[in-house]
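Support request, please re-run this one:
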Amino acid sequence: MKLSKSKQKKLKTLHVAVAILWLISVAIVTILIYISMHAKTGETLYNYTHIYHFVDTKILTPAAILTLLTGIAYVHFTQWEYTKHIWIIYKLIVALFIIMSGIFYLAPLTDNILAIVESKKILALNDAQYISNATNLFYMGTVNFFLLLSATAAAIRKPWKSHSSIR
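Re-run finished. Output below.
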């Protein structure tokens, strides 16, 4: 079953909107993590940590999942095919990698940082676990941002030919 052109446009608009929200959220969280690592007061550290935790859990995560779901729906209900176009495979792999690493690796780090900051306040900046987790979050956030940017570029440029044209 294929969607009408009107419904395809609506689905594509939703997909692009949540993908942009996801990309911006990753950038915001990464920047906030970096800023919080250089906080001068416990209150500042606490506030930045709570803000990026909120953005991560309430905006970034839903946007990531909705981007994946609308992308799958768009491919499924339009002329695009899952395995015919390499750029679609690339976007799917990038999205799944970022979402899975977020769920199983980054979310526990964020929760741990939040607990450390709530208990130690400004002293968290000297805590080895906090430093390690925050550094990992910053670097992974940076990698995720550029991966999402490359997936966006692939969707716009469609740089690889389809499998059928390669043969």
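The mean pLDDT is 92. Helices lie at 5-36, 42-76, 86-120, 128-157, 163-166.
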